[in-house]
């Protein structure tokens, strides 16, 4: 039983130029096996919790017509389709970006379809960002998968079934009350320590206040998020990059980003937040877009130290 499907064909406004659907939406996917988002062929499937309820959204290009075709299932289908242009970057203004470094200029020319997406859904990006605090990406993705598979609900439509178009049935993120009722031992089994689980619980206890940040300007939204103990500038930036398409939200406090940005722009191997922000100063208002382009070049410093240690607390 897959339910009724709603369809929307959307033609980007002129002048839009190229659009890299997969690259742009990939920032919303938490690993290759994310139960809430998968790429299958030319299509991107998303299982999401909208203000109107769960929805599954399938987006794929209609190359011949120069449009994007989206299909949606579930109580939140119409909300998801209404937000399609924002999700695909229609609120973004790449023309405001002016490259100041040769490397950035080359990446800018090579990736003309890069646009910053806007989901308008706070908890959907905030919770996995909290899970990514102070652990390896692999650990965070594993925790997200386990929690969604155990406590999420089946995605509406064919993607939520074992015989659907996605290799594994997709799951919609739990509602706030379900997050609040997850036992402490299940957080432990998912590899999430008490500090991070407590931060998630504080956020979902104020779910309505958190979601209101989607209608604020980035500065006010960051202030709203960081008012929750355990949510700092890094987590707020990672969230608002996705929720608002915040072009200037820099992930200060990231373990790897300063070194990558500094090395790419200068060849220096000892980059920190202060040096990164100094180099990004000419991109004020567009610093997140600048870092996206820098990372896309693949120019990273040689590894001189062991990887961030992985601690599997579920085995402790």
UniProtKB/TrEMBL annotation:
Region of interest (Disordered), residue spans: 152-171
UniProt keyword annotations, A-Z: DNA damage, DNA repair
SUPFAM superfamilies in the record: DNA-glycosylase
Sequence intervals crossing the membrane: none
Residue ranges, compositional bias (Low complexity): 158-171
Protein name: 3-methyladenine DNA glycosylase
Species, as recorded: Streptomyces glaucosporus
